[in-house]
Write a structure and sequence with these properties.
The chain is of the alpha+beta class and 267 residues long. It has 8 helices and 11 strands. 38% of the residues are buried.
Length: 267
């Protein structure tokens, strides 16, 4: 999955390990009742470059991850690449414990096939946005790196990915999050990790091997994509996103994906 998301918080492991529900189902329709007004505010705020309106339904973690300065940087990138928002349609619904995920297909001024992924969490009587991503072919336009630049990234990335996969196998949350940045650690609690870890290993089994298929950069992020072999699935893609904080490289996002994890048997 060659995908780099303009992200405002991190999607850890993979929400695709949980079955997609019919958008016309009862639970999806219940979610849309509170999600649609939130999305209206968010996207109106985006078009108006109004951070207050854009972020008014963020939870505390997302507000910290996407402050006004970060919003303005992301807004500039999106506007330059795909223009203003025009319309959307809800396509998929996922329920993962306390999180409700809605995936939209949106049209922007310069591109029609834009995916907006949203994660909602209930706090008391109020549902708030806990995660938000924009993705499209134009947004995935990434910097081509020289072999030397790629090797410099892999020098720190490969030991971190080794630790991730070893810790996933041993169900060690502390080690798994060892190299995460602050926002990533907040996003992946021990309970969420345990649930995802069990689900992933039950579907694709133990990790066996991997090879690098792409190393690139987008803005301040370095992205390493591996093709991996697991015990029950030889077509697993691992995407790890790195960023620098206080002169130290840290993991800002980590996603596992495969047809089997998405509920589509390998042919």
């Amino acid at each position: 999955m060659k995908k780099m998301l303009i992200c405002m918080t991190v999607l850890m492991l993979c929400l695709q390990t949980f079955s997609l529900a019919n958008i016309k189902g009862e639970k999806a329709q219940e979610a849309l009742k509170y999600a649609e007004p939130i999305m209206d505010n968010l996207l109106t705020g985006f078009n108006e470059k109004d951070y207050k309106k854009y972020s008014q339904d963020f939870d505390a973690n997302l507000s910290k991850a996407m402050n006004e300065s970060s919003f303005l940087n992301v807004h500039k990138v999106i506007i330059e690449k795909i223009g203003l928002y025009k319309s959307r349609k809800a396509m998929q619904f996922v329920e993962q414990g306390e999180f409700k995920v809605l995936i939209y297909r949106a049209e922007f001024a310069q591109e029609k096939g834009v995916t907006i992924r949203t994660i909602f969490k209930k706090y008391g009587e109020k549902n708030l946005l806990a995660g938000l991503w924009f993705d499209s072919p134009k947004l995935r336009n990434q910097k081509t790196l020289s072999p030397e630049e790629q090797q410099a990234i892999l020098k720190y990335a490969e030991p971190m990915v080794d630790n991730l996969l070893e810790s996933l196998q041993s169900a060690n949350h502390k080690n798994y999050t060892r190299d995460f940045d602050a926002n990533a650690k907040k996003a992946l609690s021990e309970g969420v990790f345990a649930q995802a870890q069990q689900k992933i290993l039950s579907i694709i089994g133990a990790y066996k091997s991997r090879k690098v298929i792409k190393v690139t950069k987008q803005a301040q992020y370095a992205i390493v994509i591996h093709s991996a072999v697991f015990e029950k699935d030889k077509q697993v893609t691992i995407q790890t996103i790195f960023s620098q904080k206080d002169n130290k490289m840290q993991i800002s996002g980590h996603v596992l994906d495969s047809p089997t994890l998405r509920g589509k048997p390998n042919k």
